[in-house]
Each structure stands twice: as C-alpha cells, then as structure tokens.
Amino acid sequence: MIQASQQPGLLYAVSSLAGVAPGARPPRAAQSAAAQALLEKLRLALPDGPASKAHARGMAAAAAAGAGCVGIDLEYRQPGRDIGAIAAWLLDQPAPDEASAYRVFTYREAYFKALGAWPTIDLLREVAQAGARDFQTSDGLNVRHEPIADAFVLTLLWSGSAAARRLAP
Predict the structure, then answer these.
(1) Does residue 31 form part of some domain?
(2) Which of 12, 86, 104, 108 is the residue whose CA sits 20 to 30 A from 125?
(3) In this structure, how many other beta carbons lie within 10 angstroms of the beta carbon of residue 153?
(4) 141, exposed or middle or buried, with CB in 10 Å at 0-12, 13-18, 19+?
C-alpha cells in the first residue's frame, strides 16, 4: 500500500487475465472486469482525479492520475495484421515501420481517452518519429510507449510533471 505522503501523480498497472493465453479472445466482459479491477486497485492510492482503462486479447491495463488528464491504450500485435495500412490512413503517409505504426495507433486511442478529441495529423507524425520509450510531445503531453509480454504495445499519455509509476498487478 502506498502511503499518502508517497502518492505519485500517475500510477498504471497491466495484467494478464488468469488462465487466458496471450492473444486469445476471452469474453469482452471478462476483459473489461479485469481492467476495472486494476483501476480499483490504483484508486486505493489515488482516489480522485482522471482515470483510463484498456484491454486487448487477454490483457488489461489501467491508469489513474491525481490531476490533469490521462489516457491508456493496449493493443495486441496480431501476426499478419496490416497495421501499416491503418497507420498510413491516420498519417496520410506511410509509417516508418511496424513499431511506429503501433505507436501511432495506440497513441491516437490513448489521446482520445485523455482529451475526448482526436490528435492532429502533425501530432501523429511526431509520435511516428519518436523512438524513445518516454518523451513529451510538442503540445506538452507526456507519452510512454511500452512493449508488454512481447505481444502487446501499451501507450500511456498524461499531462503535468508527474512521473509515471507502474505497479505490479
């Protein structure tokens, strides 16, 4: 348990669903319940402020912040999926590579969850070129791209100066 004096400004957690192989398609309700359970755990440390949750193919993720905005997205790296075509449509040009394409796709989803609007093409292009795990966009938002279990991509987006802290599930 995190003591009140130690409360960070942003917490997130990721967990696989018990008994579900990565990439399997468990019922949507089970995945949503797993993401909600993670969020409730985060709320023990950060009871107020914005929150976001995501799930994909047997994995769940959640994030909570003390203030500002937060968005999280999780995507399964499906073999044979033409993520490059999706990213090219979003960018109005080809993505540099598959990793960039997943960054663009998950950033777009996390941005919408955080701000309730879609990012501009210029922001998406900026994200496509960003190779760092952690960076700040030109509009001042913090971004973390993190591979999860070699089969998923997580993007966390938040405002403010707080550092992101991942908790064990």
Answers:
(1) no
(2) 12
(3) 23
(4) buried
| Residue pointed to by tokens 């292009």 | 125
Residue 159 to residue 60: CA distance in whole angstroms: 22
Please check whether residue 13 is in contact with residue 168, taking contact to mean a CB–CB distance below 8 angstroms. yes
Does residue 59 belong to any structural domain of this protein? yes
At 65, which helix (H) or strand (E)? strand 59-65
Range of the domain at 130: 38-167
State pTM to two decimals. Answer: 0.92
First to last CA, the chain: 12
Instruction: Tell me the C-alpha distance between 40 and 144, whole Å.
Output: 22
Unique residue bearing structure tokens 């991509």: 153
Domain annotation covers residue 108: yes
Could you tell me which of 41, 38, 78 has the C-alpha nearest to residue 57?
A: 78
Q: How confident is the model at residue 91 (pLDDT cuts 50, 70, 90)?
A: very high
Between the CA of residue 54 and those of 11, 71, 103, what are the distances in Å?
14, 9, 15
Share of the chain above pLDDT 90, in %: 86
CATH number, domain with residue 53: 3.90.470
**How far is Cα 106 from Cα 104, in angstroms, rounded to an integer?**
6
If one counts the domains in the chain, the total is 1
Instruction: Kindly list the strands in the beta sheet with 70-76, ordered across the sheet, starting from the edge strand earlier in the chain.
Output: 70-76, 152-158, 142-148, 134-136
